[in-house]
Sequence to fold (271 residues):
Amino acid sequence: MADHTPSWFGQYLVLERAALRAQLQYRANFWSALVGGVAYQGTQLLFLGVLLSKFDLIAGWGFPEIALVFAMRLTSHALYVVPFGSLYLTDQMVRDGEFDRCLLRPVNPFLQLITRQFPLMSLGDAVLGFGALLIFGWQAPVDWSAVKLGYLFAAVVGGSLVETGIQTFFCGLSFVATSTASVRIFADVSITQFSGYPLTMFGRGVFYGFCTAFPMAFIAFLPATFLLDRADDVPLPLWLTAISPVAGVAVFSIGYLFFVRMMRRYSSPGS
Fold:
């Protein structure tokens, strides 16, 4: 007998579509969340414009260059938060015992977690992110070609996997800690506030930390330096900067494997 069980991706589409339909029942909430997402991320762009109106350069980078980094960072964030935004519910589901149901159903528990609720505000992130990438990418000092456009696509997808991997890693701690909200908020705020800027402005030691312990340099900055022919600005080998989009696969794999390993330590609260 043929196995008609949907693939992992097929299961994701079914569950995510159901979560989106549930959210769209409240149209006013949909539009307010959409506008809220655009406004929240738009304040970062506004701050960037105000900052560069006072200082023409930041670490030797002008507005067209930093705007490209910002747009890549925001697009990567949108590609993370639209499919994986429900990761923030991990603490609550573990604490309330709702995660028990995920273990009883014949579907990957991680898949059930990320489709638990569709994050409407993420649609605002996506609208602003892709819009900014289109506008600032056109204005950036890059001689665009099919190869560079392909590299840009790989960079924003890789950046989204880096952010997803970081958040997945911290969510794995939910199975052994009462709350991981502080570290997850720290990661989110750090990425939102700083990864859209030239990270070399923090000094070599901190920059190396952004490439290893907290690898947010791979989200937008390192791929952008390669696209803008500014790889000499970073204290890394050119080949490593060039393949920086690949880091997304490594970071996500580490985060997911840690999540699965920690999931084995889950103890039901019995509620």
In short: Residues 11 and 183 are 30 Å apart (CA to CA). The mean pLDDT is 84. Residues 26-263 form one domain. The chain has one domain: 26-263.
